[in-house]
Task: structure prediction
Amino acid sequence: MEQESPLDATVRMRIRSLRKARGWSLDNLAERAGISPSQLSRIETGHRRISLDQLTAISAALGKSLDELVESPDDSDVVSAPTGTRVAA
Result:
């Protein structure tokens, strides 16, 4: 598998952490998300890329939005009040 991005690692960690915080096994979350336990295991361990369909199903099963699973842990790149040069009309 190709090099994993920091975002991929963050999403995998969040899925596993949320699952464990609920006391769910791989089987529990996989059943709720409609995927196989082996697929979920490979997703959590980085041996399988996460498809959008799977991520949507997993986030719904965990009761989280996609945004909550994929938001950057470091918001230093977020621009909340952009500044720029005004162009005279």
